[in-house]
Amino acid sequence: MTKGAPHVVIVGVGFGGLSAARALAGAPVRITLIDRRNHHLFQPLLYQVATAGLSPSEIAQPIRSIVRGQANTSVLLAEVTGVDADARTVLLGDRRIAYDHLMLATGARHAYFGHDEWEAHAPGLKRIEDATEIRRRILTAFEAAESMDDPAARRSLLTFVVVGGGPTGVELAGAIVELARRALAADFRAIDPRQTRVVLVEAGERVLPAFPESLSAAAHRALERLGVEVRLGTPVTDVDADSVRIGGVLIATRTIIWAAGVAASPAARWLGVAGDRSGRIVVAPDLTVPGRPEIFAIGDTASIAGRDGRPLPGVAPVAKQQGRHVAAAIRLRLAGRPAPPFRYRHFGNMATIGRKAAVADFGRIRLSGLPAWLLWGAAHVYFLIGFRNRLAVVLNWLWAYATFQNGSRLITGSTIKNR
Amino acid sequence: MTKGAPHVVIVGVGFGGLSAARALAGAPVRITLIDRRNHHLFQPLLYQVATAGLSPSEIAQPIRSIVRGQANTSVLLAEVTGVDADARTVLLGDRRIAYDHLMLATGARHAYFGHDEWEAHAPGLKRIEDATEIRRRILTAFEAAESMDDPAARRSLLTFVVVGGGPTGVELAGAIVELARRALAADFRAIDPRQTRVVLVEAGERVLPAFPESLSAAAHRALERLGVEVRLGTPVTDVDADSVRIGGVLIATRTIIWAAGVAASPAARWLGVAGDRSGRIVVAPDLTVPGRPEIFAIGDTASIAGRDGRPLPGVAPVAKQQGRHVAAAIRLRLAGRPAPPFRYRHFGNMATIGRKAAVADFGRIRLSGLPAWLLWGAAHVYFLIGFRNRLAVVLNWLWAYATFQNGSRLITGSTIKNR
């Protein structure tokens, strides 16, 4: 591979960007991976960091280690500030990186539906820092409740509200209730953590709306069995430091977690092209940006319809398949051949509810309860392959399962304040 | 145990406070443990968190889990702001906690010899947050060097200065050089991390001054074999954001770590009693504060002479033995019997230099090289017993040893800035 090889720049090393880079190993191109973070994150397990079940390094891997053996690839830790598409250049502040092919895989953030001021009181869960901050808030609430005499204040400290009934919200609610009722149950003297109230709020008519109705119902029952209070059909209308308003109901709480709404990163704005309602770039069938055949957008950055005409969901399998598709498309172009349109192969959906229940949807095959949980566990261990900490993750899970302990219960980042 | 049992308040849950609490399990007292942090920290391995070898939860354990089974003990996460010794009351902001026996085990911080402004450029290593911040600085320096064209700036980014030749400084310097030359060696394209320069600065005449001269010399040789540049007899005279001045020499560096000088926490000030040069309370032979037989000070908070007349060092074995001694003294007092003076039993000193060398001093028996390293490893695994992550720590070490990888190489806490 020579210096003169075509330069492929990939912005964002999530599931999409990473699978593209890997699929271009050995190709006659130079690849530059650009990310603001030095690590690739296994986001599906991030909720377990937020609930003290896993520690950050168990689900994050330095990008450099992952592509170390890939001679055509270099890594740049930097923040992209824009794209000059006419000059085929990525802007990093004052610095400019020229590209021949550009892949935008910059992911998504949480959306607060025009209420960005809610974010301070109701953080979302996208990055390692989000997870350790949510962990700090949850654990600190129990600590504050322990030294609080006023019953109403104590109840508010022991009330946790999760907004959003998708997989992340369902998983968070289940994990918080288990943390409280199992791991923390014997640790306090003044409070009984088993009195903890966890409320899951979903604006739509059912939890896990992307699943078949029968599995939504199974997940709903499993959540209630665990002790989660599920409130459906009620959008959040206000959030502040010590309460959340849901329709006409005011819930006093000191810990709110946001797992609703997705806003794409500013890639569409960089290019000056139209985004969909969430700001995602509406891409052509071959995942290129309209009018810019040398720019691809994938994963949560892109909006493209699936076979049923509805936009593909923002999940890891879509991003990974799109990353591999773009890699193949670039190889074909180098050979002077046209690339086919992208087709998503849907294998299935899974979500877990606590340590013994899950739902899994594979079209005709639908599982719930323990069989689904075992499948979920096996699938996640399988997908963690390539992460060095696969073994540590499994050991941690087994330990937590056998002892009902959550081992990563660290409060870091801020000293406790006396009340 | 009744509510009327004598109330023992322990401030600080390091090695001293924790061993006292454990030794009072089952005693006819009520115990309250107060700490600003929710976790007990295995400080001897903190340098491995700072150099990405271990992750925080592997060396930190929630205090509540540790004393969960101890019915006479409760835990309070709060910051002590003072002591009203006449009223036998600990102050936590507006809140007051009455005690019958008080144990001050509040540890130490780093001292900058009147130059507190150096701390921003040369952080010390005492808490989890210190370790993740130092890890961030070290890893970010390599990232910045990778995208830096100016050779002088690049050299400065790849120069790391550790100030202080005690065990922490020696261990840090060895771990940084191994991180650079082994774990990171193949990860960069523009720089060669093996060109990294690590300078260990000690104001005294030898490294590890608490060890016999032969072992200091062995450690010195082992450091130089690893590639550490050792500078002795040269105090630091200035520190700023991009250099450190050592005697007449100016070293351009972007990463300085402070492992020199100890200042006790403000316990002496709370009591209005005399502190020694480092602010430690000069205690009576039974570890009580002069004139206050109901107040004990232990560990880094206390100054007491050993058999040779010199003050006992600020190390874990001293704190642990003192904690157990005070627990025994309180039990004797409750039985109406006097407590004997504290005697320190010195078993030995160890320090490690990288992954294959260490020094161990057991009086007549002195070891260096691989035998000392194996002993050091065995001892630390043994002392981690009670930490749930003992197994994870061992697996991590074995993994790192077998593959020369450092697995916890996360940069967290701050987004990268474009240069």
Task: Output the keywords.
homodimer, 419 residues, alpha/beta, FAD/NAD(P)-binding domain, 2 domains, 6-stranded mixed sheet, 4-stranded parallel sheet, 25 strands
Structure description:
- The structure is a homodimer of 419-residue chains.
- The first copy, chain A, has 419 residues and is an alpha/beta fold.
- Chain A folds into two domains: 7-36 and 78-110 and 262-334, FAD/NAD(P)-binding domain (3-Layer(bba) Sandwich), CATH 3.50.50.60; 116-260 and 356-403, FAD/NAD(P)-binding domain (3-Layer(bba) Sandwich), CATH 3.50.50.100.
- Helix content of chain A is 31%, strand content 25%.
- Chain A is built from eleven helices and 25 strands.
- Chain A has helices at residues 15-23, 46-50, 63-66, 128-146, 151-157, 167-183, 213-226, 267-271, 316-334, 369-383, 390-403; strands at 7-11, 30-35, 39-41, 60-62, 73-77, 82-84, 89-92, 95-98, 101-104, 108-110, 159-163, 197-202, 228-232, 236-240, 243-246, 249-252, 255-258, 262-264, 281-282, 288-289, 292-297, 302-303, 349-353, 357-362, 365-368.
- In chain A, the strands form eight sheets. Chain A has a six-stranded mixed sheet with strand order 5-2-1-9-21-20, covered by helices on one side. Chain A has a four-stranded parallel sheet with strand order 13-12-11-17. In chain A, strands 6-7-8 form a three-stranded antiparallel sheet.
- In chain A, strand 20 and strand 21 form a beta hairpin.
- In chain A, helix 1 runs parallel beside helix 9 and helix 4 runs antiparallel to helix 5.
- The first copy, chain A, is elongated.
- The N and C termini of chain A lie far apart (63 Å).
- The mean pLDDT of chain A is 90.
- Chains A and B meet through strand 5, helix 4 and helix 11 of A and strand 5, helix 4 and helix 11 of B.
